[in-house]
């Protein structure tokens, strides 16, 4: 029995509220169970120096957690003057994932910065950030298209991410903190709307895992990703 009493292949409740911020070019508040992340997209009419005069755009991300997003207070990273290795790794993952779903030539020489701020954490914050970050990106690109700043849609497909793991000897979908903290194996799967893989992060936490178990987790990830893509499209009014 899972702590939440969910079925092995059952997602937590997913809610995506678009336009959650008044000033961002695109934004949403995504809730996956007890994990709540505020995602925003900011348009900048410039690219990093290494892309100057290439005709290519860029999508990057920043990630952070509020001090009381967790059970006990976490010190603000700004107070220590540097980001943790975990924060850097997660925001690079978000950026890589979202860039995989966009035609950078069609975007043109501009940058979109995705900010993902965790309001409340209960496992799977990086997955929620990627899934919500894509919605914010979609809304920002819609604004570019409406303004005539770009002539063709640079977004190639939806991008969503979901965690899977082996809990109590069973493959399970969408781990919350109670499961993630003791899972023998856990991983994150980033996928496109067509079910193609962008990135897989898998690790054994004390117990190794077999190839057939990995395949079972992949099956669960495909189910979960498809459900998240449906939630993204529903939040956007079915128009992507």
Summarize the structure in words:
By secondary structure, this protein is of the alpha+beta class. The protein has a single domain, classed as Ribosomal Protein S5, domain 2 (2-Layer Sandwich), CATH 3.30.230. The protein contains six helices and nine strands, in the order E-E-E-E-H-H-H-E-H-E-E-H-E-E-H. The protein has a five-stranded mixed sheet. A four-stranded antiparallel sheet has the order 7-6-8-9, with helices on both faces. Strand 6 and strand 7 form a beta hairpin. Helix 2 crosses helix 4 and helix 4 crosses helix 6. The chain starts with 13 loop residues before the first strand and ends in a 5-residue tail after the last helix. The model has no long low-confidence stretch (mean pLDDT 95).
Descriptive tags:
240 residues, alpha+beta, Ribosomal Protein S5, domain 2, 5-stranded mixed beta sheet, 4-stranded antiparallel beta sheet, 6 helices, globular
Write a compact overview of the structure shown.
This protein is of the alpha+beta class and 240 residues long. Helix content is 31%, strand content 29%. The chain is globular.
Q: How many separate structural domains? A: 1
The CATH topology, please? Ribosomal Protein S5, domain 2
Shape: globular
Sheet-strand content, in percent, reads 25-35%
* Helical residues, percent: 25-40%
- CATH architecture annotation name: 2-Layer Sandwich
Report the top-level CATH class.
Answer: Alpha Beta
How are the strands ordered across the major sheet?
1-2-3-5-4
First CA to last CA: what distance? 37 Å
Q: Any low-confidence stretches, pLDDT <50, length ≥5?
A: none
- Note the main sheet: 5 strands, mixed
CATH superfamily: GHMP Kinase, N-terminal domain
Radius of gyration: 18 Å
What integer is the average pLDDT?
95
Number of helices: 6
